[in-house]
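pinned: reference chain
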Amino acid sequence: MATMANSVLLKHLAHGAFIGSAVMAALCVLASEPLLAACAATVGGIVVCSPTFHKRHGAAPWPALRAGFFIILMLLVATAAFTDRWFMSYWLYGLPLLAYVAVPRRGAWVAIVAVVAIAMFTVYQASGIAQRHQTIGAFFLTLLLSLVLVFLLEFKRRQLMPLRRTDELTNAASQQHLTSDLNKEIQRSEREGTTLSVIMLALKPSNDAEPAGADLRSILPQIGRYLHSHIRDFDAYYRVADLQFLIILPGITSPQASRQAQALQHGVQQLLNSHQLTTTLSTGTAGLNIGDDANSLQHSVTGVLRRAQQHAGNNSQPFNGPNQEPRT
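pinned: its structure tokens
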């Protein structure tokens, strides 16, 4: 709930920033300041291309567009420096922090160095303005504070990374927790004498020439919601690859898991058909056997899925091992 609330708050802030940029650009046009209006419009473009504005904007081509808008903004500020527009020097204070948001990590450092060069040239050009000496100190202080903030954000992000449990796109549990969670379920199954099965579901574009199933990834949130609504509350599903999911089913035998896999396959296929997507959907199931651990069980269901994918068209295949019934 806290993550959802933060996401909604950031989305509202992004929309507010876009509206503010649009209003500022309009006012600058009315004031006959086209360069300043272009800067405001470019900032609005950066905001629109951010994943905070819309969650789908984290995938291509939006990051490239965001970086392109930032480069345009830097060129506009550099143009202001060449044309002695001193009043636009205040834009330099926000560029280092904006570089961290708009440009990929490695490119951000190159962008910051370029911003420093533009700032030094701006101060050099303003040789007749008394405020230029104050600008040097204020700019480097702002740059230092921006770098400290970036360091703290990265430090906190790396601290919280192990605690991240779900995939943002599908709300499936993260793959990095799969092995530990599956081992816990195996131990519980052995301790309580119950069965355990897993299902692996994989989507693949029917035409291998298609660009990495971009259309499929666009409906992954709907597939995630479908899986979430068609499994039990104590079942768990994980996104183990770009277009693959693994579902843990405690207390379910292999035949029961096979029937559930077919039902899920049918439902997901209907969802894909409603979006007119041509794809191959395969499922594999495996039950827990004596001596299995998380790795061997994942290996079994992966092998079953691979055999199912070798057949033409959609296919579902169970593990050819002993079917487990509930122990007494």
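why pinned: The chain has two domains: 2-163, 175-318. The chain is about 60% helix and 10% strand.
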